[in-house]
Design brief:
205 residues; alpha+beta; 2 helices
Length: 205
């Protein structure tokens, strides 16, 4: 089942997320407070599970700027984690994630994650694999590029990932970092990471 989350039951949280995306992008309106955005993300996640929504990888392809994220903290007595309060990302540190289909090797798609602060840009790239029925995208960063004043000063392989690039596709999802997407629209996407945190990205224009 594929849907764009436009049923009556989803209007409220979609309005909050749409308002957050538009205001953060500078298109007018006021940013909803962080607690309201967290509630909207949780409601969207619950609706996606109940309605068994499914999205294809092509709907994720493009560049997305991180708008809002929650951290997590461990609860020793309960033996679990709880969400942090959540916050809007400062605009002076632009964080962007992008997804691209591999033209040479069908099914072997790519992820890129970059952060720019002033004239310094750090970009990580690597392979992905997507489980459409679960809206789950597993990935591993295997390359790093550092640029200064738009000039590449370092580019090379990194071992931040748990597996080598060639072995990535044979690894079980449980051993890889991943995002479980629960909202995918033309303007914004939202997901829960393996660590339990929630994130909202807006499409780069």
């Amino acid at each position: 089942m594929t849907t764009d989350l436009t049923s009556t039951a989803t209007v409220d949280f979609l309005q909050v997320l749409s308002q957050a995306a538009a205001a953060y992008r500078g298109e007018g309106g006021k940013l909803p407070n962080a607690a309201l955005v967290v509630d909207a993300l949780l409601a969207a996640e619950k609706a996606a599970k109940q309605e068994r929504l499914a999205y294809n990888f092509e709907s994720l392809v493009g560049k997305w700027r991180l708008c809002f994220a929650t951290g997590t903290r461990k609860v020793r007595k309960r033996g679990g984690i709880v969400l942090g309060k959540g916050l809007y990302m400062p605009k002076f540190a632009a964080a962007q994630i992008s997804f691209a289909s591999s033209e040479q090797d069908l099914g072997r798609d790519e992820i890129a994650n970059q952060v720019q602060v002033g004239v310094v840009l750090v970009k990580l790239t690597g392979p992905t694999k997507y489980l459409g029925k679960k809206n789950l995208l597993a990935f591993d960063f295997t390359q790093m590029q550092v640029s200064l004043f738009n000039r590449v000063i370092y580019k090379g392989q990194i071992r931040s990932g748990k597996v080598q690039n060639g072995d990535f596709y044979n690894q079980p999802i449980a051993k890889l970092p991943f995002f479980a997407f629960f909202v995918v629209t033309k303007d914004f996407i939202a997901a829960r990471g393996r660590g339990g945190g929630l994130a909202l990205w807006i499409r780069e224009i």
